[in-house]
Amino acid sequence: MTYKFAVFGNPIEHSLSPIIHSFFAQDLGLDVIYDKIKVEDNFKDICSNFLSTAQGCNVTVPFKQDAFLLANNVSQRAQKAKACNTLKKQADGSLYGDNTDGAGLVLDLIDLGLQLKQKNILVIGAGGAVRGILDELYQEQVASISVYNRTLEKAQALVDDFAYIKVVTTDSMQDHYDVIINASSSSLYNSLPNIDDSLYAKANFVYDLMYTPIGATIFTQKAQALGCPNCYDGLGMLIGQAAFAFKLWTDKMPNISATKAYMRQYLQELQH
User: Fold this and answer.
1) pTM for this structure?
2) CB contact at 8 A, 6 and 57
3) pLDDT digits (tens, 9 = 90+) for 102-129
């Protein structure tokens, strides 16, 4: 059987999803065609048309909320995030939506040796990426989750759906967090979030959802320079969320560590 998938988004040229899913398929001995499709507008029609002859798709920015609305039924985590990054066509032709971002993140954090239980976590950002990860982090029995965002109102809007979070400002932050997760897009623009240097120095684990060929971002490099012992980029999360989508479609879980090693090498070769 040949599986047919794609990722929809805009911009989409830079997407690594086709490379990742091709590696999954090859590693598991499955026949998979995986495309990337740029959508200007009319996501609903383009996606529905594609899924008439395909088994599923991934959806990235800015269409995750459109995918959520397109799905006939959704997972509990997609319901909380109000966004889907994965759609699966069911046997009856209906669409099932899931959000695998948070599961992908937690899988990578655990793989990197982080014990989340009873940890105080600071999450930077309040966009769609944050909505996708909060519940999965919370379910790991963490001690607390604080959310900091440049625009306070945007962070406070999360409290309606995630009552357990604490919204903080630069003035009301604790003086120490065990784990700091940068879920803002600051690293994309080579800038740093407005948090005190002492927080990096006192943290034991720092993670940036952005990724680079060298495995370090401006954010993780800053933390490392200030003495944080464990600093990681988000390549593992990207692979993790893709793996959960692949499992939803094919019932087979890909080998994460083999994919991570392959993708890191692929990115480094791409640079040269």
Assistant:
1) 0.95
2) yes
3) 999 999 999 999 999 999 999 999 998 9
